[in-house]
Amino acid sequence: MPRTDEVLADPRLVEAAGRVGRPAVKQAVVAAQGRARAGEIDQSAVADEAVAALPVRGASLGPVVNATGVLLHTNLGRAPLSAAATEAVVAAAGPTDVELDLATGRRSGRGLGMLAALAAAVPDAEAVHVVNNGAAALVLAATALAMGREIVVSRGELVEIGDGFRLPDLLTSTGATLREVGTTNRTALADYTAAVGESTGFVLKVHPSNFVVTGFTADVPVAELATLGVPVVADVGSGLLTPHPLLPAEPDAASALRAGADLVIASGDKLLGGPQCGLILGRADLVHRLRRHPMARALRVGKLTLAALEATLRVPPTPTARALEARQEDLLARADRIASSLRDRGIDAVATTSPATVGGGGAPGVTLESAAVRLPESYVERLRLGTRPVVGRVAGGACLLDLLAVPESADESIVDAVVAATG
Ligand SMILES: *Cc1c(COP(=O)(O)O)cnc(C)c1O
Question: pTM for the full model?
Fold first, then answer.
């Protein structure tokens, strides 16, 4: 049996130790020696076996191709970063001037470039602030403006975000009390008027971003809530900063502010197409109270997020915006090229139209006309388990690889992955 230190001197394993850490390399060598001892592999193959078993990077998170047809898939990390945002993250990875004014050598405000970019993107906001995610923005607003007071909110807007987390629990965890008004399907201005009073911290308007209520329904728009004489906080969810022509029912920050919202809250990694973060936009005095609240420090974002968000805002379009505007005929042409190159290799593949969705990040009930490559159903699992995983979906007894959320540059790697999964 080759000795452990001899195997570890193999140049491939020395290189791997720098990438994934020496403990992982040693573990792989010991496991390979075990297999050799058991007669499963030859003793001369111990180093090869260890090299093959090693992970390719230090972190277990790796890239996957989102061929699910869900544009913002929470399980796949929601919005992919743009090339500019990705470069900004890499540039900020080492020491960076996040709180230093290089001109004077003095300490500066944190993330001023990002805040300026956000303010420029939403001129209707007097002030802006960014925290860890949409939920953190809500928690900060509730804590700073309604602790020991009431948040007035419609029963139709007390939503579960996902993974068992519910807005009412989140809000009351801050020490605020919920004053529920109206019913599941209908809430009127009079319901709010009757509830608003001395103890009101703010009125909260939540966009139901992952379900649709249809039929006998009514809700109160921000413009009417703004007449109540108390602060109105609008959680628009999706992070659209301005109206989107393809998503007319989706609320946006600029419109909510113009309608009279005092604060708008939104996520950064949904339709905005940026990193995970929570935007807080609106009245200068309220934003200042949130920013200076002690809890703000616990919710602040890291330098990598500041870098990614600023680049997302300054260098449009994002991959999410591009995907939203993709034309079905172009997607179908791509699906055709992929399918025909697979058929050339004897694989049963056809191009088909496919209904895609925005996902949990917004626009519930909206269908985006997309296109997909259809393969036998067993490919769904085989592609998920490949070295560069491709995540498709099962529909009608087939595996569909929907191209809406796939950048064209990944088409070739889809072909390679399907060929590899066929062998
Ligand atoms: C997504 C969403 C949230 C939660 O935002 P995170 O960024 O996921 O924390 C809150 N409210 C609404 C309306 C949402 O759509």
Answer: 0.93
